[in-house]
Each structure stands twice: as C-alpha cells, then as structure tokens.
Design a protein that fits this description.
The structure is a single chain. The protein is an all-alpha fold. The chain is built from 72 helices and 10 strands. The protein has a 4-stranded antiparallel sheet with strand order 5-6-7-8. Strand 9 and strand 10 (1481-1482) form a beta hairpin. The two termini are 75 Å apart. The relative contact order is 0.02. The model is unreliable at 1-58 and 492-501 (pLDDT under 50).
C-alpha cells in the first residue's frame, strides 16, 4: 500500500490506495444500487445501508459515529477492534438521541461483525452492544427481529468471553421473565438464520475466497455451524413447552434434510459434539419428531458409539441414552450385533481410550436398555462384555490413572451386580452365567472376600458363624495360592500401577495373618506357616530381581504384612517359618544397597520390619531361647560374611549397624538373660585357629617400615612384602571381624554388664580389643595405605572403635598383659601393637616391669623375645636397660662363628644393644669401644661374614641381618667416638666404603626387604661420618689421630660420593613403577641425606658418563654441562627426597655458572638490538615442560584463590619441581653481573616464563601465609609468616609437609621480588584490575615490610666503597641517602621506598646540591629514578650504576640525546653510534627504538638520514 512508511495523523481522511480505487470506481460508474458501503462524495462520510437514501444520512448519524462506522467496514483486524471499542465508549458517553441515530445501521453491522473471524473483535462487539442497549433501551425493539438470530448465535460462541459478553447484553436487554417472549417474537427470523447456516451456507459464501485464506474460511464456517447447532438447542431450551408444537412444524424442513444428519459424521469434533447435544435436546423437547425420524436418528447416534474424541464423547453418550429412552424401537433401526456391539466391545477393551471417567458411568444404563433378543446367547454376551471390561482395565493407560481405573472398576461392579440379579434363576443358562461370573472373573473378587472377612471379625457373633469357613481348607488353599501369585507376579511385573491393583490382596493377606481372635490366628495355623514361607521365599528372590527395578511394590507390601504379623501375633517367632522370614529380613538389612540393589525407601521399610520382629523376639526370648534358632543362625551368617573377605567399607558399616541394633535391643531388654548374650557373642567370635588364619592372610607389606626404621630386626627370608594393597576393592577379613566384634565389646563395656563367670568373659572382650588394636597397627605400619584402608580408619573413628575409645573403656593392665604374651610368643606386629599401647597410654616403666619381673625371662632369645625387647626398650627402667646391655655385651664376647647370625647369638644381642643405645638415655661411652673391638676381631677371624665389596644377589638373610646390626652399631658409636684408635677409625671408614660398594653393586636385588634395609643403613653410616667430620671443631680435631681429617677429605669423602652419585643416577633411571613406594621413602631419603654433604669440588670432579643434548646452546664446560643434563631432569622425579637432594646439589653450582657467559657477552656488538641470553638451557627446557603441565592443573583456579596440593601426590612433586627450578634460576640470576642480568631478563620477558610463574604463585600462596605454630596474640610486626621464616628444604618428611608447597611458593615470590623487581613491576602493571589489586594488597601486607627491612639493612651493612660517594640508610623512615662529591660539586639524593615496595615506584627526592645546574640536576635525578625502577637489582647496584653514569659525564662522555643518559638504563652500554652530520652519539638500543617507533631512519637531532 502507498505511504507505508509515512506517519498517519489523527483525522486524516485521505483514503489509502484501495480507498482511492473505490472512489474512482464510484466516479466512473456512479453508485451501485444495493451496495453496502461508504458514500462516494468527499463530503459525505455516512454509512449507507441499501434501504436508506443518501439524503437522510446527515440528519441521522453524528459525524463521529460516521467515522467509527466507516472504520468498522475495514478489513484490518486492529482497525476494527479499536473502532468497536471506540463505538462502545461513544455509546456510553454520548447523549441518547445521538446514539439512537445509529440504530437503523447497527443490525447489518452487528450481523456481519458478530461472526468475525477474530475472537477479540467478536468479544468487543458484544461489549459495545451492551453499551448500546444500556443507552437506547426499548428503542432497540423495532430492530430485534433482524438482530436476534445472530445474537443467539453469539451467545453460543466457542470463544467463552465473547459468548459471556453476548449473554450479559441479552440479560441487560431482557429480564429473565421477558426472555422467552422476546424469542417467541423473533422465532421465525431466528429459525430462518439458523437453517440458512446449517443447510445453505458454505465456507465460500460466508467469507470472500479472494481475500480470505482457505484455512480461515473453513475455521469460520465450522465455528458458525457449531454455534448455529448450539443456538438451536438453546432456543429449544428457552421456549415455553407450548411453543414446541409450532416449532416442530418449522423444523421439519431441517430434519428431512440429509445434510443435517451428516453432521454426526462431520470431520470437525466441535460440530459433531454440537450435533449430538442438539439431538439430546430434540429428544427432550420434540420427542415425537424424533420418533418420526427414528430411521435417521438411531443410526446417526448408535453407530457412532466408538467416537473417541474427548470433545464429542460426553455429548455422544448423552445422546445415546436419550435415544435409547425416547425411541422404544431404536434397536430395530440398526444392526446391533454387527454395527453397535462390536464397537462397544472395542471401546471397552481399550479402556475407554483415556475417557473412562466419561464413558463408563453410562455403561450400566446402556446395557440395561439392550433387549434380550440382542444379547442371545446370553452366556457369550456376558462373557464378551466382562472380558472386554477386564481387558480394558489392564491396559497401561487405565492402570496408570487412579481415576480411570476407579471408573472402570465401579462400572464393572455395577454391571456385575446387575447381571447377577438378572441371572438369579435356576435355569441351566443362568447357572452357567453364575459360574462364569464367579470363576472367570476372579481377578476382581478379592476385595469382596476382604470385606466379608472384615465383617466376620467385627463381632464375635459374626465370627462364630464363619469360623469353620475361615479355618477351613478352601479359604486356606485359596489364600496360599493368592500369596504365591502375588509374590511371583508382583516381583516380576513391570506395570507402574501394580501397587493399586494388588493392594487389596496384600491387605487381605495382612489381615488373615495378623488378626487374632481369642489369641488364635484367623485362619488355620498350617496356612499361616505356608503363607509366611511364600513371603520369605519372595524376599530371598528380591535381591536378585531388584537389579531390574521390579521389587519396590511387592517388598513394600511384604514388609507391611511382616510388621503387622510380628507386632500383633504373640509368640509368632516360635514358628520356624517366621524365624526364616525374620532372618531373611535381617540379611537384607545387613547388606549394603550396592549388593541388594534396593531403594532407600525399601531399606527403611525393611529396617522398620526388622526392628518390629526384633522387638517381638526380645520380649519372648526368655520363653523360647532354647527353641529359637534365629540368634545362632544370624550370628553364623554374620560370621561367614566377615570371613568371606568380600566386604568393602560401606558393606561393613551396614553389617555393623545391623548387629549393633540387635545387640542394643538385647542389652536393653530386661527379659534377656546374660546367657543369651554370652551365647550370641560366642557364636560370632572366631576360634583361635580362625584368628590365626585371618592374621596370616594380611599382607606382609607392613614389615618394611618398621624394618627400615629399626624398630624390628629380622634375619630370615620375608615373603609378601611387595604385595600391593591399593588395587584391593575388599577389606581383609581380619579387619572386618575385629571391627564388628570391637563394636560389640564397646557396647557391653559401656553398659557395664556383669556376667556370672565375669573374668572369663572380660578376658574374651580384651582379646577382641587386642585383635582390633592389631588390625589398626597393621594399617598404621603400611607406608602408603590404600584409599580403602584410609576410609576404613575414618569409619572406625565414626563408629567409635578407634584405638583411643577402646583403651578408654578397657582394662589396660589386662590388655597390656595379653599383648605382651602374644608379643613374646609371636613378636613382629604384636610387639609394635604393644609398644603403641604403652606409648599412647603413658604406661609407667614400673608397670612395664611388672610384665616380666626379670630380664632373664627373655633369654634364650627367640624372635618373639627379641622383638618384644626391641619395642620395650624405650619404656624400660634404667637398671633393666643397663642389665640388658651388660648381658648382651657379655654374650657377644663368647660368640663363635656359627652363633654370629643366630637370633640367640651376635645378631640378636647386637639388635638389643642398638635398641637400648638408640634410646640415648644412658652413657655407654666406656662400653662401646670394647664392643667395637669384638666386632673388629670377628672381621679378622671371620672376614666372609662381613659383606664387603660384594654382590648381594646370593645374599644369605642371616648374614644380611648380622651386617645390618653391625652397621647400626657403628653409626651409634659415632655419637661419642673421641676415644677411638687410628686402627678403629680405619676399620670404620674402610668398612663403610666397602658396604657402600656392596650397596652400589646390588641394585638388582633392591626389591628384597633386607637388601633395602642394608642399603639404607649403609648410606646412613656414610651420612653420620660426613656429619661428624663436617661438625668437628678444632678442639675435637686435635684429639683425633694425626692425618685422619686429611684421609677423610682426600680419600673417604671422595670415595663416598664417587659411589653414591652414580648410584642415584642408576636408581632413578628405572621406571617409576619399578620403584616401590616405601623403598623410595626410605632408600632415597638415606641416599639423599648422604649426598647432601657432597662438596662443590666433588661435584665438578664427577666421573659420570658424558651427557649432551643435540642443539643445546651452552657456554658451560663439558663436565658441568653433563652434571646439569644428568641431574636437572631429576628435579621432576616423582619422589620428594630425590627432588630435594638434586636441588641442593645443583644449588651449590648455580652461582658459578653466569661467569661462563661473560666471554659470550664480549662477542655481542652494539649492532645487535634487543639482545637476550638464556639462563642454563637444561633448566629452561625443563621449565617449559613444567609450565605446560602446571597450566593444565591450575588453569581452572582463579588467580588469588589458594589451591591445596595434597602432600606427596603426583601434583605435589610436579609443583615442587617447578618451584625448585625457579629457585635455582633466581639464584643463578642473582649471581650474574648487571649486564648479564639485563640479557637474562630480556629472555624471560620474551618467553613470558616469569609472568606464568607469578600467576601460578598467586594460586599456590595462601591468602594468610601465617607460619604454622605462630600465635595470633603477637602484634602484627612480630607475627611469623612464610616470608619472615626461612624455608627448611630438608629431605626428611616433617609434620608440616602440608605447608611445604605454600611456604616454598612464598619463598620463590620473595626471591622474585628481590632479584627481579623491575620485571615483577612490569607484570603487575599489565595485570587486569582484579589481579592488580590482589597482588598489591597481598604484597603490601606480607612482603613489602620484609623486603624493605632487608634492603635498608643491606645498605647499612654494605662493605661496598664508592670513590666520592657515601651511602647511609634510615630504617625508621625507609630512606636511603646518597651523598656524591667531586671537586666543587656536592649532591645529596634521598631515595624513599614506597609502602608496596618493590611494586610501587621508588621516589627520588632532592637534598642539598652545590655547583650543579638545575637542568643537569633534574636529568641526574631522573636517571637515578630510571635505574632504580628498571634495573633488576638492589638499591646499592642502582646507585653504583648512577655514579658510574655521573662519573662518565665528568670524564667528558656526552649523554645520549635520546635517553639523556651516558650509561644505558638496561644494557649499560655507552653512546657509540654517531651521526655523520651532527656528530652526536647515541646508544644503539635507543636508536633502534627511535627508528622502529617513528618509522623513519633520520637522526633524532638534525633530521638527516642516519647512515
């Protein structure tokens, strides 16, 4: 349309293009007679009906109304809607006379627009009509006949708001009493309109095919058909009955038309529904006409009985019942058996197709109207009918809806009752029908049976009448069959609504089992037993079937029945079948849901049922203890579960919980005697041999830790120490049994129960606790317990069966005696368990002494006695220790060769001596040299007994054990070695080297436990010697034999490290999995501790095979490069001892490495721009790899959020290696000269490595870096943090290992700020705002004060002297004052450190100055500020650089005219590049920056081309 985008203004009457076309048509041809439309004259805006003359318009219609009426003829919906709303408003607001002028034109507008396609327009029309009626009132009367037909249709509009508005308007026009009169007055016109719509109109006559889409035309037509049918129904309903006869005549035309009757088959559901509603109205108001048209009515209604549309169904079935009632011979007009009944069966078999609540209430009235002739043969008819109903009931749709199901069942019961009443006679066919109803329809008969039994139980009279039948076989067998069917079918059914379908049957079973009459069961006892058996069998299957998810309903019902049965029937558990049921329920409650696959709901139900049964059991246990087998059977089942080793922690927890409930109930019940408890505990407790078997099944992996730590000594082959536990999914049976029995023991102890044979029972309890302590000790000794075992320990704490809780309640004296006896008998883990108890309970030495009276009881030494003594030694009285030492020393003196390796020989005596000496509480200085002499005599006589410089591949465990104890003794001897002779020192040092050689050559057999111990103690001996000689003071050295120190330094120490350095390389070269964890933890620690004493010279003179990397740029000598390439990768080794050892070794070399780059520095010319130099390539390559791995771990953590790294995990080793590499790089960087630092920092800037480090550090540093153990009460300045305390990078695992990474991260950050302040500042300024603030706040709060103090302190303590410059510092104000004087010139500069030093810029302020121009003075201040801001070094280094710059200036060297400085701020070069024109000199770097930033190659001063 024209002017589409132009703004239309109000009152603009210029027509659009279509309007202009109409104008042109009128001008060309004149007004077409009979055309309803607007006038053709530009001044005539009135609405012109066909019957009115144009000359009357002005006087009849107000101009505003004319405008509105004109808009109502537009096609646009919004225009019409707004116009109609405006019309309604005007009718309400204008004077009556003006509104009355519209009346002649309103009917035609109303008749057209009240059936408009848009429902909003229709609603607005009725609302406007209401306003018109209210205004004109009785003046509407002349126009009623032309309005009423469409008005009635409007009241039946399918859009409810429109229909409601029309009804309101109708009620406003006519009071209820006047409404029939109005309709009678207009009935002919109404019928004419309705019949036209029903018989003549089509979609194309009601709407213009050229402008209205087909879909819209059809929708309007169907709606008008529907409304017309409903309007006719409304008319019939509202007219008085005496008008019906005259109406019948007028309706004959309609009823004789085939087109009308076809509306029952119309494809629009709303038309069909309206049609059937109208038929019902016809049957009510003009029945005679319906009878006359029976041949049309009956097929139209009855043959549509299977219509499944939800819209149609209610009206259809109402019509069906009206037709059956009104037309007596209706069945004669249809073929019932072929046309009606098959359709009915289909509807019933399909459960009403989701419309059961609509259809089924009509079924009984329907079948009651079916004449006998049609139902023949009646038996087949009844069977088909009821089978169809049942089939429909069992459809998934019906079963899923309670209301649908209820409607079907109600209809079934009504029809069943009706059919029974109809077939109550004695004829053969009637009897057959009765049998069919009883036998075939049994599925729904149980509710009747339930009602009968409930009524029978309601009074004793009724019960007496039925007792024979209730106790009889017929009912009993039927109930057993019911139980069997329910248990079998319910467990397997997959129908969701099975619960409601079967609930009455379950209720019936519950009633017959739980209802008691005069303390007797309702049905025969034999049937109670058989039903209980069925329930028990079903529950047994529940575990297997529940995986398919089919047990919820049936198990729930069985629980309800069992709960009622256990609660109601006294003595029910005397019945074996009841005990079986209770045992099955207990078993289901005592197994985890992972095993039973039961839902939480069912588990709770089963537990409730189990407790009901348990209550019943406990209350009657005193009467039936001897007869009851439940307790014994349940105990044996639990015992079997425990010993089968198939339990995980969750399963064990559930089992303990179930047994705990049982025992708690038994303890709470007064009726239960202590004999019952004794028996129950006895049944659960394993025999001695069973305990032994379970202990033997525990892995020997635990042995390594106490062997390596020296708490146990062994000289025999040990198997199973390498067995892995991590992969185990199930707990060892010993742990499970001990845990459960401990829980029971605690319950008994807490209750304070007193048994008749109390001491014997108390001893049993203590034995159980001893086994639990043994189990807990086994886990504690494992170097790396699996997650399963850690979970078990946590569970032990939760269940209150921890070591602390057990010891609190038990008799410690009795418990200690048991552990002591078992330790003496068996040794090993029992000895460790005993020691743990003594230590944790702080048992006095006198009480320990009471265990054995005299030390003679331990001799002759067997393994048990040896291990007992080794673990008792820290707790023995002083005199007992001395006696033991003397006894063992005396026995050593008499040992011959065969006795050296025996437990009751030198091996055992040395082991006891070492244990006593290791306690350190007694001075044996006089005795120990004598023992050493004995050992040297053995070396001289039996040299083969000493494992010197040999391979242990064929090693004898006895000889190994003997050597291990000798090495341990020698290590202890070094605590007080001053009185040793030169020959004895020679023996110690030579033996140590020989043992180390043996260790080095025996790498292949390291997996064997005793070989590992030998390797560890050999390394420990070398560490002890190194520590002794390193700590030796001049006073001690004087007392040593002559040349001993020289011999140590030149021969022995060199020998140690020439063996251990290659050994470290060999061990770590193995695959990670080949290195067993506990061996890593001990051997690598021992090896690392020994290597910590290696000197720088020994490292540089190593004899390792050369190792170089292709393409690696390096200035280092070959030996040094080999050392770096060999050991740098070990910084990432997955064992902390190796990482720490390698770090300490490499750290000794780092400060010497930069000097090798100095030669390289000379080769760099000024022509090379943006120079950079890599720190050691081996470290940087490693760093690049680590950065990528670390990024994968930490990228999801926001910067500033602390990440907890689990100690000793793979991530821990990775992060540790990364941070250690950086510590080495920073040490290297600090040792470099200023020029080299500039090149290294340029390299770090290019690779962005430092930026990555800083982001990672702010994920690894804690938000509050308080040092562990520091008190919060201290004032802030005294508070200990990770920045104020030195980081102890020791090899040993400290308790504070969890703070190791955070502390190391803080240490690295502190070093970075100290040694690379300019680069950190550059990074900080480039950070996003959030990170910028986090870094600033953290650094200011925790680091700045520390670094400021160190910087000020370093200035104060500096020994650096400047010719002509003095430097002093003021700590209170954080200021450094530099005074420079030369000839007559005097300059004073004040350097102020910012609060967030070194992030913030250092402020340089002017002090006194003499003999310096202002401009020069400003330049120098700017230079110093630039040096301090951009150089990566200390304030003293910055001042030195500045002084050098000023000195050059006084020497006559001109400033670079770009940076106005003699010495360049970052590469420290002088201005050398001169312009050929102006002769001014510039720094190469400054020129390069000038050329690249200006995109010119001209001199910055003279602007000539720079050659």
């Amino acid at each position: 349309m024209g002017g589409k985008n132009k703004q239309r203004t109000k009152g603009n009457v210029r027509p659009s293009s279509s309007g202009r076309a109409a104008d042109l048509l009128a001008k060309e041809r004149g007004t077409v007679p009979g055309f309803i439309g607007f006038g053709t004259s530009s001044s005539d805006l009135g609405y012109v009906p066909a019957i009115q003359g144009a000359e009357e318009i002005d006087s009849l219609v107000d101009a505003d109304f004319r405008m509105v009426l004109r808009k109502l003829s537009k096609r646009d919906v919004i225009t019409k809607l707004k116009a109609m709303q405006e019309f309604g408003t005007m009718c309400k607001e204008r004077e009556t006379e003006i509104v009355k002028g519209v009346l002649p034109y309103w009917p035609r507008i109303y008749c057209k627009i009240s059936i408009d396609h848009d429902r909003r327009v229709r609603e607005a029309t009725q609302q406007a009509f209401e306003q018109l009626i209210l205004k004109v009132k009785k003046h509407l009367a002349p126009h009623l006949r032309s309005l009423m037909g469409y008005w009635l249709i409007a009241q039946c509009d399918t859009y409810s708001p429109a229909a409601s508005a029309a009804k309101v308007a109708f009620e406003k026009a006519f009071p209820p009493g006047k409404q029939p009169e109005a309709l009678i007055f207009c009935k002919d016109e109404i019928l004419m309109v309705l019949q036209d719509h029903l018989l003549k109109e089509t979609p194309d006559t009601l709407s213009d095919p050229q402008t209205v889409p087909e879909e819209e035309r059809e929708a309007k037509f169907y709606r008008i058909l529907t409304c017309s049918l409903l309007a006719l129904k409304k008319l019939l309903g509202m007219l008085p009955s005496d008008e019906n006869s005259s109406l019948e005549e007028k309706l004959k035309l309609l009823l004789t038309q085939n087109k009308f009757w076809k509306y029952g088959k119309h494809n629009a559901p709303q038309v069909r529904s309206a049609f059937f509603e109208l038929i019902s109205a016809f049957c009510q108001h003009i029945p005679e006409s319906m009878k006359g048209e029976a041949s049309r009515v009956c097929p139209a209604v009855l043959l549509d009985i299977d219509d499944s549309d939800a819209t149609v169904c209610p009206a259809l079935w109402e019509a069906v019942l009206h037709v059956l009632t009104t037309i007596e011979d209706c069945w004669s007009h249809v073929n019932a058996k072929k046309g009606v009944l098959p359709k009915l069966w289909t509807v019933l078999q399909e459960g009403g197709r989701g419309l059961a609540t609509v259809i089924y209430p009509n079924i009984l009235p329907f079948i009651s109207k079916v004449p006998p002739g049609i139902t023949e043969p009646k038996l087949d008819y009844c069977r088909t009918f009821f089978c169809s109903v049942i089939k429909g009931l069992l459809t998934e749709r019906a079963m899923a809806s309670r209301s649908e199901c209820s409607a079907i069942i109600s209809a079934f019961m009504e029809c069943l009752q009706f059919t029974v009443l109809q077939s109550i006679g004695e004829e053969e066919e009637e009897i057959k029908i009765q049998e069919m109803l009883i036998n075939d329809q049994m599925d729904l008969k149980w509710n009747i049976l339930l009602e009968i039994i409930e009524k029978a139980c309601s009074s004793s009279e009724k019960h007496s009448l039925c007792s024979t039948w209730l106790k009889g076989d017929v009912l009993g067998e039927k109930l057993v069959t019911l139980a069997d069917d329910l248990c079998n079918t319910s467990l397997k059914t997959t129908v969701a609504s099975a619960e409601s379908f079967h609930s009455e049957r379950w209720t019936l079973l519950s009633l017959v089992l739980s209802q008691l009459i005069k303390n007797e069961s309702l049905i025969g006892e034999i049937y109670v037993k058989r039903i209980i058996d069925k329930l028990q069998a079903a529950l047994s299957k529940a575990k297997d079937l529940s995986e398919a998810g089919n047990t919820e309903t049936s198990v729930s019902f069985i629980c309800d029945i069992a709960s009622n049965f256990f609660s109601s029937v006294k003595g029910c558990l005397l019945m074996p079948s009841s005990e079986d049921l209770l045992l099955t329920i207990f078993q289901l409650c005592a197994q985890s849901q992972d095993t039973t696959h039961l839902s939480d709901f069912l588990v709770n139900k089963l537990k409730h049922t189990w407790l009901c049964g348990l209550n019943s059991l406990v209350h009657h246990l005193s009467d039936m203890h001897k007869d009851s087998t439940f307790l014994q059977r349940s105990a044996l089942w639990v015992k079997n579960q425990l010993q089968s080793s198939t339990l995980d922690v969750k399963s064990l927890q559930v089992l303990i919980s179930a047994v705990n409930d049982l025992l708690t109930k038994l303890l709470e019940a007064d009726e239960v005697s202590t004999y019952v408890l004794q028996d129950y505990i006895q049944w659960l407790t394993p025999s001695g041999s069973e305990w032994d078997k379970m202990r033997e099944s525990l892995s020997n992996e635990w042995l390594k830790k106490p062997l390596l730590e020296g708490r146990l000594s062994m000289n025999c082959e040990i198997s199973g120490t390498d067995r892995k536990l991590c992969g185990m999914g199930k707990l060892p049976s010993h742990l499970c049994t001990a845990a459960l029995l401990s829980r029971m023991a605690l319950l008994i102890l807490e209750k304070g129960l007193v048994f008749e044979n109390h001491e014997e029972e108390a001893s049993k309890t203590e034995n159980i606790i001893a086994e639990q302590l043994y189990a807990l000790q086994w886990i504690e000794e494992l170097a790396n317990p699996s997650c399963l075992l850690l979970e078990f320990l946590h569970h032990s704490q939760v269940m209150n069966i921890s070591c602390e809780k057990l010891c609190t309640l038990s008799n410690i004296t009795c418990l200690l005696q048991i552990l002591f006896n078992r330790s003496k008998e068996n040794g090993r883990l029992w000895a460790l368990t005993m020691a743990k108890l003594i230590h944790s309970e702080n048992i006095a030495s006198s009480e320990v002494k009471a265990l054995f009276s005299t030390t003679e009881r331990f001799f002759p030494l067997m393994e048990g006695n040896l291990h007992t003594l080794q673990n008792l030694s820290p707790f023995l009285l002083q005199e007992d220790k001395e006696e033991l030492v003397l006894q063992c020393t005396a026995k050593l003196m008499t040992c011959n060769e065969t006795e050296l390796y025996n437990t009751d020989g030198a091996f055992g005596y040395l082991a006891i001596l070492n244990s006593c000496l290791n306690c350190g509480s007694i001075d044996y200085a006089e005795l120990m040299p004598g023992i050493l002499k004995i050992i040297i005599s053995w070396r001289n006589e039996y040299e083969d007994s000493f494992l010197f410089s040999c391979n242990l591949q064929e090693g004898n465990p006895q000889v190994l054990g003997f050597n291990i104890e000798i090495i341990r003794f020698v290590s202890l001897l070094l605590n007080e070695p001053s009185s040793l002779l030169e020959s004895e020192w020679d023996f110690i040092m030579c033996s140590m080297l020989a043992w180390l050689e043996t260790t080095s050559e025996s790498q292949a057999v390291f997996p064997f436990a005793l070989v590992q111990v030998f390797a560890c103690v050999s390394c420990d001996l070398s560490t002890a010697l190194s520590a002794y000689f390193q700590a030796a003071t001049p006073e001690i050295t004087e007392k040593l034999p002559v040349n001993l120190m020289t011999e140590w330094q030149e021969f022995c120490s060199e020998g140690i490290h020439s063996l251990l350095l290659p050994l470290l390389v060999k061990i770590t070269r193995k695959e990670k999995d080949a290195l067993e964890t506990s061996f890593q933890n001990f051997m690598l620690k021992s090896l690392g501790k020994a290597l910590m004493y290696i000197s720088k010279d020994q490292l540089l003179n190593h004899k390792l095979p050369a190792k170089f990397v292709a393409g690696q740029k390096t200035n280092l000598p070959d030996k040094l490069q080999t050392l770096l390439n060999t050991f740098s990768p070990l910084l990432l080794f997955r064992a902390r001892p190796v990482q720490i050892t390698v770090y300490h070794m490499l750290n000794k070399l780092m400060s010497d490495l930069p000097q090798f780059d100095n030669e390289d520095l000379k080769s760099y010319g000024d022509e090379d721009e943006e120079l950079s130099l890599s720190p050691p390539a081996g470290l940087m390559t490693l760093l690049a790899t680590q950065e990528e791995l670390l990024e994968n771990i930490l990228e999801c953590i926001p910067v500033g959020e602390f990440t907890v790294i689990q100690p000793l995990s793979d991530e821990f080793c990775l992060v540790l290696g990364y941070l250690l590499i950086w510590k080495l790089i920073l040490t290297f960087f600090k040792a470099a000269s200023s020029q080299l630092r500039a090149l290294y920092s340029q390299y770090l800037r290019r690779t962005k490595s430092l930026n990555k480090l800083l982001y990672h550090l702010f994920r690894l540093m804690p938000e509050n870096p308080t040092f562990p153990g520091s008190t919060a009460e201290l004032p802030n300045k005294d508070a200990k943090t990770f920045f104020t305390e030195e980081l102890d990078l020791d090899i040993k695992d400290t308790p504070a290992l969890s703070s190791h990474i955070p502390h190391l991260a803080c240490s690295v950050y502190c070093m970075t700020l100290k040694d690379l302040p300019a680069m950190v500042r550059l990074w900080w300024n480039s950070c996003e705002k959030r990170v910028f603030n986090i870094v600033d706040k953290f650094t200011t709060k925790y680091v700045s004060s520390v670094l400021s103090s160190q910087e000020i302190s370093s200035v104060q303590t500096s020994t650096q002297l400047f010719n002509g410059m003095m430097v002093k510092a003021r700590s209170a104000t954080r200021e450094v004052i530099a005074t420079y004087s030369v000839d007559d010139i005097f300059i004073e500069l004040i350097i102020q450190l910012p609060p967030n030093y070194p992030l913030g810029s250092i402020i340089v302020e002017s002090g006194k100055r003499v003999g310096v121009a202002v401009q020069q003075w400003r330049n120098w201040m700017l230079q110093l500020s630039t040096y301090l801001t951009h150089q990566n070094g200390s304030i003293m280094e910055g001042l030195a650089l500045w002084k050098n710059n000023v000195d050059k200036r006084f020497e006559g060297v001109e400033d670079c005219m770009i940076c106005f400085s003699v010495i360049h701020g970052s590469n420290y070069s002088l201005p050398k590049k001169a312009c050929r024109t102006c002769k001014k000199k510039f720094h190469s770097a400054c020129l390069y920056k000038w050329f690249t930033s200006s995109n010119k190659s001209t001199c910055p001063l003279c602007r000539e081309t720079f050659f």
